[in-house]
Design a protein that fits this description.
The complex is a heterodimer of chains A (about 70) and B (about 550).
Chain A (H helix, E strand, L loop, with lengths): L11 H11 L5 H19 L2 H12 L10
Chain B lengths: L15 H4 L4 E8 L3 H12 L4 E4 L13 E3 H9 L3 H7 L1 E3 L1 E6 L2 E7 L11 E3 L2 H14 L9 E7 L4 E7 L2 E12 L6 H5 L5 E4 L4 E8 L7 E5 L8 E6 L4 E7 L6 H4 L2 H12 L5 E9 L2 E4 L4 E2 L2 E3 L5 E2 L8 H19 L7 H27 L4 H14 L3 H4 L40 E4 L2 E4 L9 E5 L3 H11 L4 E6 L8 E2 L4 H5 L7 E4 L5 E5 L4 H11 L3
Parallel strand pairs in B: 1-2, 1-10, 5-13, 10-19, 23-24, 24-25
Antiparallel strand pairs in B: 3-7, 4-7, 5-6, 8-9, 9-10, 11-17, 12-15, 12-16, 13-14, 14-15, 17-20, 18-19, 21-22, 23-26, 26-27
Classes of the chains: A mainly alpha (about 70), B alpha+beta (about 550).
């Protein structure tokens, strides 16, 4: 399964607001812990290792879209 | 000092070479009478190969050291004739609990499926195991040359000279081959100047044997960051005789000498137990982890096994367990070479197969160590996130790594295996260790693995009598034919009365498996032919 970097999130503005609000009132350390748990939950939802590796590569790649990595 | 155990002092005997003079000549010199050297000696003794086994000490291990013996190691010990003694002396366990902070995160059951002779694990102090092995060797009419230390080595094309130092002076052994089983600090490795590459983990662990009448169940308990030992990990594991192994992670800055003092150790244990029940300290040690291996395990006529060849962290019980698999893999090959049945190139497959296994063990052991002792802040954040999620979310339990417990390696790319031509399902691929199954023999309950190994076997499932006659007349005594049936209709064979063998081997009437003397699968067919079996046999024998 290739990494989908085309728009796929329902109501992106609502998601973004929810993401930021999830961190409300947390210290930096608590935020880092929340992010880690969130990544793990989402990674399990994705499941496929190739897709996860592509996402890791895309996240590290500051210059271009993930499509060039996969 | 242990109150539950008194270590034997084996007698040193002045070697005849020092009383009568001369050089000791033997087919194989085994250096090191720890569990792996002793296993090699028993294996060679059972095959009628001449050897001399030397050890620089005259007793068994100090402290419990290797305590977890996995199913595959127990099956190997069965073939060495000590499985029953060791299982009777040790204790079985299968449940592990993982705690995070002050709570149980989750528990696992190793859940050995039914229908295997041996359990997933038996815990036993290494000194008890070594005593069993020494006794078995004596039963076979062999001993150990105690207080005989290898101090020099000269490797030639046609043999090896080993210089031995004893309390009465020095003598020389001339051997065809040397098995280096002299442990993680191998003197032979140093004498040969071999590279010992890998990673030392910057952490220290306190390891203690504690004798107590605990109410803890026979389970493996692992704590991450518990209130009684903040920021670190702790492991509690039961052994025989009400002795418990406790490991405390201390961190790199801990002073190993200070931490060994009872006045430092006792309060740590007291805090862990959380009450004032009586206990005695039997043994304390502080150690660091290393994950290393030799580039190659075969160096001319010197064959490295066990910790002398590879060293792993203890999480996962992959040290001694992989050592037994080393000698199990090596000894039948060495015996064939010494009898002139195979060329010395067969030993190259020991190198490739066991290096492959060592890499698998090193990978698992390194990953476990990285999880247990995170090397960076972000690594710790993810580790703690996994543990926090594991309480309520089953997926996260698969990510918790307090040691991936030892399982045998399937040698998928073995040069000795014949690739499949027929379609099979399941785990019994060429290169895999044969799975056990309950069988009936002459109305008695038994186990399949007890009928395999020690020589090449052709395991035939529900074979037609005429086909068997053809195989027997075509193959002669090159293989032993082992017949297994799903009913009692045929006389003499093993009966797969519960169907476990049929299922595990994906067998249909006529299916055949060729097994090596170490019970690893060399080839398999839906309908074997004499020529096909002959070719696979030749390949498995290194021809």
């Amino acid at each position: 399964m290739a990494l989908n970097t085309q728009p796929n999130i329902d109501r992106p503005d609502d998601f973004y607001q929810a993401l930021i609000e999830a961190h409300a009132g947390l210290t930096e350390e608590q935020s880092a812990a929340l992010n880690a748990r969130l990544i793990l939950l989402l990674a399990n939802q994705v499941g496929d290792l190739d897709t996860l590796r592509a996402a890791l590569a895309a996240a590290r790649d500051a210059d271009g879209p993930a499509a060039s990595v996969t | 000092m242990p109150s539950t155990y008194k270590a034997p002092e084996y007698p040193y005997v002045k070697p005849t070479e020092l009383t009568a003079g001369g050089i000791a000549r033997t087919q194989v010199a085994i250096v090191g009478a720890g569990p792996i050297g002793l296993a090699a000696a028993i294996d060679l003794a059972q095959q009628g190969i001449d050897f001399i086994l030397v050890d620089d000490n005259n007793t068994v291990s100090v402290g419990s050291r290797a305590i977890c013996y996995a199913k595959r190691a127990l099956e190997i010990l069965d073939r060495l004739g000590c499985g029953d003694a060791i299982c009777a002396r040790g204790i079985e366990w299968k449940v592990g609990k993982v705690f995070f902070h002050d709570q149980l995160a989750y528990q696992f059951d190793l859940l050995p499926e039914p229908g295997h002779k041996r359990p997933a694990f038996v815990n036993l102090q290494q000194y008890h195991l070594e005593e069993c092995l020494v006794a078995r060797l004596a039963e076979l009419g062999h001993g150990v040359r105690w207080k005989n230390k290898a101090v020099g080595l000269a490797v030639r094309e046609d043999g090896v000279r080993v210089d031995i130092e004893t309390p009465d002076g020095r003598y020389t052994i001339e051997a065809g081959y040397v098995i280096a089983a002299d442990g993680a600090r191998s003197a032979l490795r140093d004498l040969m100047g071999l590279d010992w590459k890998g990673q030392v983990f910057h952490d220290r662990f306190l390891i203690a044997d504690v004798h107590m009448k605990g109410e803890f169940p026979t389970e493996r308990w692992f704590w991450f960051d518990p209130p009684f030992h903040p920021g670190q990990s702790v492991l509690l594991h039961r052994q025989a005789d009400d002795v418990w192994r406790i490991d405390f992670q201390l961190g790199w800055d801990a002073d190993p000498e200070e931490e060994k003092q009872p006045e430092r150790v006792i309060p740590r244990i007291r805090a862990m137990l959380g009450d004032d029940r009586p206990f005695e300290l039997e043994w304390v040690s502080v150690y660091t982890f290393q994950c290393r291996r030799l580039d190659n395990f075969v160096h001319g006529r010197v064959l490295f096994v066990g910790d002398a060849a590879h060293q792993v962290s203890p999480f996962g019980a992959r040290g001694a367990n992989s050592g037994f698999q080393d000698t199990d893999n090596l000894c039948w090959k060495l015996a064939r070479v010494l009898r002139g049945e195979s060329s010395p190139t067969l030993l190259a497959s020991y190198d490739s197969e066991r290096v492959e296994a060592a890499d698998e063990n090193l990978l698992n052991s390194t990953r476990a160590t990285d999880f247990i002792t995170p090397k960076s802040a972000v690594s710790r954040t993810f580790r703690d996130a996994v543990l926090a999620l594991s309480r309520t979310h089953p997926f996260a339990r698969r990510l918790v790594n307090s040691g991936r417990l030892s399982t045998p390696t399937t040698h998928r790319a073995s040069p000795l295996s014949t690739p499949d031509h027929d379609a099979f399902a399941g785990a019994m691929v060429p290169g895999a260790p044969a799975a056990d199954a309950p069988v009936q023999v002459d109305g008695h309950a038994g186990w399949l693995l007890d009928h395999l190994g020690g020589r090449f076997d052709l395991l035939l499932f529900d074979a037609d009598d005429a086909d068997v006659r053809e195989l027997v007349s075509g193959l002669g005594d090159a293989v032993r034919i082992v017949r297994i049936t799903s009913s009692g209709a045929v006389q003499g064979p093993l009966i797969d009365f519960e169907g476990h063998a049929e299922h595990r081997y994906d067998a249909r009437p006529g299916t055949a498996y060729l097994l090596r003397p170490d019970q690893h699968i060399a080839a398999r067919w839906r309908s074997p032919t004499v020529d096909g079996v002959r070719a696979a046999l030749a390949r498995a024998q290194g021809h």
